[in-house]
Each structure stands twice: as structure tokens, then as C-alpha cells.
Amino acid sequence: MKFLLDDTRRRALRIILVALLAVFGGLSVSAPALGDSVGEEYSATVFGNVKIDGEPIAGVRIVVDGGGYTAETVTDSDGRWSIGVPEVRNYNVTLDESTLPEGISVLEGGATQEVEFGLTDRVAKNFFIGEGERNETSIFDQIVSRFIYGINFGLMLGLAAVGVSLVFGTTGLSNFSHGEMVTFGAVAALIFGVGLQLPLFIAIPIAVALSAGLGWSLDAGLWRPLRKKGLGIVQLMIVSIGLSLTMRYIIQFVIGGGTEQLPGFDSPKINLFGAVALSSTDLMSMGLSIVVIIAFAYWLLRTKTGKATRAISDNPDLAAASGIDVDKVIRIVWIMAASLAGLAGVLWAYFRPGIKWDMGTQILLLIFAAVTLGGLGTAFGALIGALIVGVLVEMSGLIIPADLKYVGALVVLIVVLLVRPQGLLGRKQRVG
Amino acid sequence: MSNNEKPQKTTDLHIGDAVPGCKKKDPMLVIDHVKKTFGGLTAVDVEHLEIPSGVITALIGPNGAGKTTLFNLLTGFDTPDTGAWSFMGTSLSGVPSFKVAQMGQVRTFQLTKALSLLTVIENMKLGAKGQSGESIFRALFPGFWKKQDEDIEVKAMELLKRFKLDTKKDDFAASLSGGQRKLLEMARALMTDPTLVMLDEPMAGVNPALTQSLLDHVISLKGEGMTVLFVEHDMHMVRHIADWVVVMAEGKVVAEGPPETVMKEQAVIDAYLGAHQETDLGEVTGRINIIKGEDK
Amino acid sequence: MDWGSILNNTLAGFLTPTTIAFALAALGLAMHFGFAGLLNFGIAGFMAIGGYGYAISVLTFGLPWWAGMLVGVLGSVVFALILGIPTLRLRGDYLAIATIAAAEIARLLFLTTAFTDVTGSADGLFGFNSRPDGSGFQNSNPIPQGTYGFGPFTYNEQTLWVLVFGLIVLTVAVWFLWALMRSPWGRVIKGIREDEEAVRSLGKNVFAYKLQALVIGGVFGALGGIIYTAAQNISPGVYVTSLTFFIWTSLLLGGAATIFGPVIGAVIFWVIQAFLSNLLPALSTSGILPVSTTQASTLRFVLVGIGLMLLVIYRPQGIFGDKRELTFVK
Ligand SMILES: Nc1ncnc2c1ncn2[C@@H]1O[C@H](COP(=O)(O)OP(=O)(O)OP(=O)(O)O)[C@@H](O)[C@H]1O
Ligand SMILES: [Mg+2]
What are the backbone dihedrals phi and psi of residue B42, each rounded to the nearest 5 degrees, phi first? Predict the structure, then answer.
């Protein structure tokens, strides 16, 4: 364990080297950080229940393998089993039928079945055995636990979504590079928390501060000049796509194609009630999100800049005419958007878990879904939208295959666009 | 036509007294209980209104009276909260805007919608109705539409001459001036051969000489049997060409009648015209006297 | 560094099945965005449906190759209708988000393990171009076995067959788009791009025109996916949003509101890609560029991103577009 941790640190140091190299154009040759190595206690888990007619079967051998990793276990007296896995990827789960009681076998899908993780780090795999009846005792627990997971995910998504919404409201830009601002926060936390081994309570604020700096420099160096140049919103949108590609591949250049972990990502789950088990990071993540969101709401509703922001979203010309320094407010909006995205990135890194170069892109569409659901340009709408999307994504896993959870949210996005194009809290525009 | 020659006015359009909502002998548009609110604001609330056929009707009223909104409702660009209206006897409630236009009720926009990256002549040709080359299968083979397209071009050029845009034929509409865009939009609407043309402030920003010639054109359209409904803030123009005037304020029709009488009504003067309509603005504000004083 | 082979590989980028596929897809986007003003960010979805429609019909339903390709095309028509009927009434930027979401839905449906039997999930499908029963695309190859061409343009009979077929399809598509855009139909479409309310006020059924444009561009996209698939196996990892963005880059390189721009843009894109993907690793192995070879090949995508930004900022009409006819109106 100790050794492995050291190894992680060494590798992270190498990441910093490469990062500095990328920044300063240094000369030493360095290998990219590839692959993955985690501690013995993985936070990603494949679990299940072996029961027949509601009766648990103990001692059934289950094997999980995939990605060069193999582990096995036997079911306990409640018929439960659970295997930690190093990566959030597809695994083959095999139920050793010879360990089942006489005359009972897997009825559907064969003794070896594939599982795929959705957006969380836990995935259930239950086999239809005997008469093929699925165990239903835990359905309610599952609903509750997924709901709570969904809230957690939704809060994180909300942090990212308000930024998109604020930027859209004040500048009209649908920012496709927001996903990379999310990744940036996570990578910054990785560099300081793992590479430089700073404690997290220092590393995360630094990551958020760096994100704020990113927001500032993007506005100062790119968006403001482009606004001055008078680029149309479609043009700006495509520029943001170019920026997204650029940032995404720079990040891949720096950290490589593998998955990295932040310290404490594998903190054990605490059984709260029923089947609801949350780790301390989950709880802290939710607490942090709520505090930040409240602070954000205060900022938007009570402070001068917040009010100015809303005024600009309402009517930019009027706001400018009434003496609001639109450029200054937009600058602040970019800084806000980037810092919230950066924080969301850190939380997303714990939620997935892992830091990967395209992690931001993975949730960009969910962020858009949240923002659209709430009504483009309304910050609180985005928050509500994010919670709905978060819960929906998690809950839909109960009904549809885990790897289609995303689809559910995207379908809802399209349906919402049809029924209420202006979103939940948006307003219609004047025609003619 | 010179200025001192008065255009032939059509009179005796209504049945009974010329009060708001009075019946017309030959109505083209009949509007009943049309109401539209935006949040708490009632933009349009028309109890009953008939627009007479074959004549020129002006719709006037203060800013924000709901004139443009009423246009939007009547042409299907917006849906009212309640109400029904019919065009030449056909109910138009719920009919999409393009069908309304196909039926011959064509409108222009207050905020000009020139198709910037099409040339002036393309803008015009787009207006023509019933083009066989607009169906996707026939579009592929010029044999189906070449001849018709040439005829349309001839017609478009005639109109462009009238609107003094013929020299701009091959320029992108984006390069036109504000007034020229207004003209182009009006000419484009006329390319559809409308039965009822609804013009939202057609002459705003058009220079006086051209306004005069276009007004003559509008009057000649009336001669060809076209019905015109227009919104205008220029009272000289309203007096000059309108056969009938409808006055709106705060969403309601507050007065209607022939221009000479309606403009003398106290309600209209209070709500819209103001007490000094006949006097020069300079005298009203007193600035002319001050300037005169300085000159001495 | 072996400049000879770098040059050779770069030139080879001119004409490959991938280049043709990109040209077709970019032509579809030109119809959507350049002419009709529809912000379609889901062209990868249309390509995926074309490719999968072809592969699945051949493998699962045993159709001959041409029927399979037709199914792919029909699939994209259905996709365009399902997508268009509800979303074409939306404002431009909403349409962008709806299309990108729809393309992702399509990809995830091809990726999910729920339909592995049909789609092959993450592994994709293979073995549909040559069929044991002789009904495959390569079974109908009229070109005798052998090596053809010269220098960088040397192909075996299989690739050559894909290229010939692809070029025929591309030519027809270019003609089709050209014929449409010079007609009154094209005038209405361009009018819609500029201001759909104005076109509506002239009595044109804007929605129907937009739907037609979406279907036509979508079919071009599907044909691109089919040509791509006719040259190799199909796997869902190809049809990610990055593919959409690369095709946008090709389109904007050539000029969005032009007929030949998208084709030339696709060629330029792939020549540059081929050049960079050979040059950068070579620079890295020879120690000129102080990065690993993996990093060196990542760099070229960074350059694509930067290129896209510069292009949109400084030359939005593309290399061949009319300076005055910028397509970015709003
Ligand atoms: N889409 C909308 N949302 C909210 N309010 C609207 C909308 N459209 C119009 N209004 C309001 O409805 C009222 C009537 O507007 P309208 O444009 O019809 O006025 P108008 O009579 O055309 O004025 P003007 O002479 O200045 O053109 C105004 O108070 C306007 O603010
Ligand atoms: Mg108005």
C-alpha cells in the first residue's frame, strides 16, 4: 500500500514535469504518464445478490475479470457479494454454476456476463437463477440510495451548470469548452494534491484559484477581444469548440491517456441506513456543493455585481445604458464560471472516480441538459435542472441498462426542448 | 401625381355610426374578442373590428398600443390567448403564418427583415408565389422552372424600378441603407400579389420625395383591387391616403372612422395626437422663438 | 528523419476512403449549416447510422451490400425525421444542443451491451464487406486483383474499388447539391438561413424546407459513414463528438456556403493530418521535439483545435468562400 502510494506520487511528479515542460517548452524528454495503478482498496465496486425465491444462497463463487484484473469472492450468508475493481470499465462477471445447489443454474444470459459502469463507481450484477425470479426485497433501498447518489451528482453538476448558464446569459455564448474547464480544476488538484503532495484542503483551494485564473485569462485573452471584434454567437460557439479541442488535447498531452486518482478517492463507504452507503468524500462533496451554491445564490441575489449580472442577462443594452460596466461584469462572470467549474471538476474526479483527459467532455452534454432544462441563461434554473438530471441519471439505472443511463437524460433533454423550449424558468422571446 | 391633386378617397364604408367596432359594408378581416397578454400586460384586447375591403386603412396609436402585436396575431406569427378572426370569410385561428400569407394576407415587419446575404433581386424573386422550382424534385432540372423564373425576374425589375432599387439589383441586401431595406421589404411583399397587404410603418426612414411616389404606388394598388392595412405615425401620410382610420390605445380600439372626422375626436387627440397636432413643433417647445431671439 | 516517407504519406492523404467520407459528411453540413443555417452538431450520428445500417443489414439480415447501403441511407432519413420534426422549430443554439445529444444517443445505443448481438457493442462489427455467399461489397469488386497507381497513390484492388465507388457517390452528391442550390428551392433555403420569419411571411412552408434540408444533408452524412465503413470495420468509438467537430473544421476550411469548399476542405484537413501525424512523431524520435511519440501525436489534435479557432476568427468564410457572403449572420 505504502509503496503503491509512493508510486502514484512519483508518477504525479512526472506529470508536473511534463506540465512545466508544456508550459515553458523545456528540453528534457519525459515519458507520458500512462496506465493506471491504484491501491488495494478500489472504490469502484461490482456487487450483487444471489437469491432464489427470496432465499439467499451462500458460498457461490463469483469471478470478476477485465482489463488484466481478476478477483473472486463467494457470497456471504445473506447471498451478497461485492468485488472492488481498479477501473471504471467493462468487466466480465462469472457465476460459478458448480457452486450453486443441485439443479439450479443461471437461466438467462449465461454464467458469464458483462457489466458496464454508468456514471457512478458502483454497478450491480444479478443473475437470473433457478426459476429466474429477481430478488425484489431491496428495490426500495435501491431507490433511496440512488436518489441520494443522484442528488450528490446533481449538486456537482449544478456547480458546473451555473457557469454555463451565467456565460450564456451575459454573452449569448453556448460554451462548448466548459467541459475542459471542469477537467482543468481536477488536473490542477491532481498536480498540487498528488504531485506536490500538498494536503487537500490547500490543494483544492489552489485548484479553484487556478481555475479562476483560467477564467480571467480566457476572457482577457480570447473572449473579450472577440466580443470587441464583433463575432457573432455562432462564430463564438465554434471558437469555443476549437478551444475545447485545444484544451482537451493539451490536457491529454500533459497527463496522458490514463486515469489518475486524487488522495482519499477510495475512502470506505459508511452504511448510513438501509442500503444507503456513502463515503466521507461523498458527504463532504455534498456539503461543500451546498455551501458553495448558497454562497453563489447570495452573490447573485444580494451583491451589486450579482444584480448587475442578472440585469445584463435580462437586457444587455439596457444594462449598458443604465451605467453598468458590462465588460467588467462579464469578466467576473467568466471568473465565477471557471472557478465553479474547477470545483465541480474536483468533485467529479471523486464521484467518477478518477481524473482523465476527457472527463469534462463526458459530462458536458449533461451540463447542457441541465442548463437547457432550467432555461438557458437562468442560473437557478440551471441548478434545478442539474438536480433533476442528476437524480434522473441515477434513478434511470433501475430500469434501463447502466450503460444507457446517459441516454435517458439526453432523451429528456430533447423532450424538454420540445415541450418547453424556453426551459423550466426561461421566458419566450419577442417575434416580429 | 402632384401634391395638390388629392387622391380619390373611398367613402361610405360603414354601417351605422362610425364608432369603435362598427360594421362594414364589405369587410375583408373580421376580428372578434382577440386578446393577448404578456405576463401581466395586456398588449391587445380587441372586442370587435372589421377592416373594409378594397380600400386603404390606417392603424394608428401611441407607442406600445399593440399595433405590431395585433399584426403578429392576425398573420399567425403569434397566438392570442383568446379570440377568433377571419379573412374573406375563412377563419384564420390556428392557421400557421405561411398559410396565411399563401391565402393572400401578406405583412411586412416594423424591424426590417431584409435577407442580408441574398442579393436584392434574389430577395425579390423569393417573394413570387407558386414557383414550380421551389419543389425539391423539379428544382433539380431547370427545364421545369427556367421560363417561370425569367418572367418573375421581369416582374421584379419593374417593381424595383418603382422603388428606385433597380441599380442595386445585384448587391447583397446587407449593403442597403436602412430606408432601402424598408423599401425592399415592401417591394418583396408586393411580389406575392397579395389580396391584403399589411405594412408595419412602411415609410419610416424613407425620404419625402420617394414616400410621395410610393404613396402613389400604394394608391394605384388600391385601384387594382388590393386592400391595404398600414401602421403609420406620420399623420400627413395617414390623412393623404387612408380611406379609413382605426385608432388603438393600450390594446383597445378607441376610435375609428374616416380620417377627417376621426382626427378631430377628443379621445384620439388625448390618447395619441396631442393638442398641438396642427402647430409646428418648434412653436410648441418654444425653441423657434429662442432661436429667433438669438438671431436678433 | 525520413522526409521521403513523410512526403509520401502526406500526399497519400489526398485520396483515401476517409477523405471521401469526410468530404461527403462536410457536404452534408454545408447543406445544413452553410445553406440552410441549421446548426447541426450531430453529423457523427448520421454517419454512424449510415455505417451501422449498412453493416447490420448485411450481417444480421443477410441483405446484399447495395440493399444494406440503402438501408443505411433510409436509416438516416428516418433519423433526420425523428430529430427534425420536433426540433426544427427550435432556436439555432437549442438545435445545436439537441442534435449533439441525438448523435450521442445514437452512439450510446450502438455501444451498449444491451444489443451486443446486433451491434457488437464496444468491439463493433466486421466481416460485412466480403461475404462468403458472395453478396458483399468486395465480392462485387470488378477490379482484378493487383496493385494499381504510383508513388503515394498506390492501392490494392479492394481500396481502389472503395475509392472508385466513393468518388462516384461524391460526384453525384456534389452535382445534386449544386443543382439544388442554383434553383428557386435553393433560394428559399438561403432565405431561411438569413431570416426564417421573413421567408414565412412570404408564404413559404419554412418547416418543410428545413426538414428537406436536414434529410438531404443527413443522407450525405450517412453516405460518408457508409463509404468509411465500406473500407474497414465499424466501431462506435469513431462516431464521437470529436468526429463532428473535425468535420466542422473541414467544412469551415473550405467555406461553409460553397459547393466545392467542403470537398477541398476535407482534402486539406486530411493532408495536414497525414503530414502532422508523420512529422510530429518523427520529430520526437529524432529528438528535435522534446516529447514522447504519443505526446507528439496528441499535439496534432491541439493544432486542429487552434486551427479551428483561428479559422473562425480570421477567415470565417473559409478558403474558397465569398468574402462578402459570410455565413455567420446572427
Ligand atoms: N414578446 C413580448 N413580450 C413582452 N411584452 C411584449 C412582447 N411583445 C410586445 N410586448 C409589449 O406589448 C405592448 C405592445 O407592443 P407593440 O409592439 O404591439 O406596440 P406598437 O403599437 O407596435 O408600438 P410602436 O408604435 O412603438 O411600434 C408593448 O407594451 C410591448 O412592450
Ligand atoms: Mg409597432
Answer: -90, 110
